[in-house]
Amino acid sequence: METSPQSSPPTGPFRCLQLLSTGAGGMVWRAEGPAGPVALKVAQSESQQVALRHEAAILDWVDHPNVIRKVQAHPSGTWLALEYVEGAALKEWARGKGVTRIVEVAARLAEGLAHLHGNGIAHGDLKPSNVVIDDQDRPRIIDLGIARLVEDEPPPAGFRGTLGFAAPEVLAGRPPGFATDLWSFGALVYAMLTGHPPFADRDPAALTYLPLSSLPEPVSALSPGLPKALDELVMGLLARQPDARPGPASTLPEALRASLRSPPQPILVGMRREREALRGLVVAAQQGEGSVVVLHGPDGSGRRTLAAEVQSAARREGFVRLSLGERPRELLPELRAAPQPTLVVTESRDRGVIELASRVLAERLRCLLVIVTDRPMVTLGKLGAQHMQPPALGLDQVRQLLSALHRPMDQAEGLLSASKGNPGALVALLSDPVREIVGLTEPERALLQLTARGPMTIEALAKQLTLGEHALIDLAEPLLDRGLIVELDDGERLAASLMR
Question: What distance in Å separates the CA atoms of residue 108 and residue 351, rounded to the nearest whole number?
């Protein structure tokens, strides 16, 4: 946005050069000052002056390389000069970046957030446009306009934040705090990894209720091959219950970096409608509406995958997991007295389970009872239990899986025919011996997966991974040292040994 410097307002020792943006918080200029360039916020109303005085006071507490720095402020709040950062907003920066690089930037952001929290400050509006990343991958948290000293300032009246990145409790009208920032930070990392926030909906109205009535799709379902610990950390930050989120913020940098050393989460395709419905049942049970669901289908159909996702979501939301034992009916008193929502998962169809399910439904207990079996349970269906059968995979989903595994697309039709759309059969056909190997970077794993298909020349591998041959050899060295790949033909070809 270009504006003539002649039309700029008086701003003390700073000379306005370019109008960068204008909005409810005032105008933001690129300006020149005695010590160099600054980002200059200029108030256009009395309320904006109050806001700039507040932001300047908050910034007096801040001194961290990953949080924007105050340069100077006018005592009246007419203007506020900040460190000028030449760089990209988070959303633009994250496009096309690998997981390792994204996680390092996220860890640095977490360090900045931990500094704010350590000084008693809740940011209140973490979102992609409030993070700028320079050409050295150094992020800055910016715009502390609605930040507050949690212990010293009363919570603001009304909703303040950004739909899509505002925590559920804020949407419900509760005051923001440190846990609110943790949810927003999780949403930021989710967006960096997937390209969109946890609840992606074009209708802003939907964003006012989706975080209150549902749980987001696991980030690994949208970004296949993510390290398991990274998937669990991001989804944990997005827990609906503030006290269930991992924290404090000071623990996140190390947790993020350590997550890269975990094995990849199993690739998940298909069953999107069923998985979304089950996440909704977790929220319903959390809110006091228990239910019984029968997940049925043949072996390998995905019924246990659905049950595993329910268990992960319930664990993150603070559910108590109870075991049936040999006498299911004896569990009833514990279900009735439980102060938290409960989850029971079983593969039994005996009479005791049916009686327990009937009491959960009749008494509307705060329990989610999941029965995993090979066929429907008609009696329970008549009592109100829900039935779900995972649908067979289609050609598009097989192609999605092949893409995630970096396999040739021309295998799709043959694999679909051979597996008849059964996920278990398809996974067996595509068994990947590389997946469980830990301690690999993303590029190293890609190289090992290529060589696991058979010996390949250095030239062919470099072309597949879009690397120079020298860079490819450097990438291969740690794998050679670990005995995971071997050289053939005097080093002209590489092959996976898969020795661990």
Answer: 55
In single-letter form, the type of residue at position 273 comes to: R
DSSP strands (E only) in 158-302: 291-296
Dihedral sign for Cα 78, 80, 85, 87, please. negative
171 is written with which tokens?
């949407």
Higher pLDDT pick, 12 / 234: 234
Give CA separation, 360 vs 214, 291, 306, 367, 471, in Å. 22, 7, 21, 7, 60
Nearest to 146 by CA among 213, 48, 228, 212: 48
Average pLDDT, the chain: 90
State percent of the chain over pLDDT 70.
95
Cis-peptide into 197, omega within 30 deg: no
3-class secondary structure per residue, 168-188: HHHHCCCCCCHHHHHHHHHHH
d(CA 484, CA 323): 41
Going from the C-alpha of 425 to that of each of 71, 218, 239, the distances in angstroms are: 62, 23, 33
Domains and CATH numbers, the chain: 5-83 (3.30.200.20), 88-259 (1.10.510.10), 272-388 (3.40.50.300), 395-429 (no CATH), 442-496 (1.10.10.10)
Residues 6+ positions from 23 with CB-CB distance below 8 Å: none
| Closest residue by Cα to residue 78 from 130, 147, 142, 8 | 8
Q: Tally the C-alpha atoms within 13 A of residue 483's C-alpha that lie toward its C-beta.
A: 2
* Structure tokens that stand for 251 in this block: 């623990």
As given in the structure block, the two tokens for residue 428 are 């067996």
Residues 79, 112, 265: CA angle, nearest 5 degrees: 135
> What secondary structure, in 3-state letters, does 298-341 show?
CCCCCHHHHHHHHHHHHHHCCCEECCCCCCHHHHHHHHHHCCCC
C-alpha to C-alpha distance for 89 and 100, rounded to whole angstroms = 19
Which pTM does this prediction carry? 0.81
Q: What is the pLDDT of residues 107-116, one digit of tens each?
A: 999 999 999 9
Pairing of strands 131-134, 87-89: antiparallel
Question: Smallest Cα–Cα separation from 316: which of 408, 208, 219?
Answer: 219
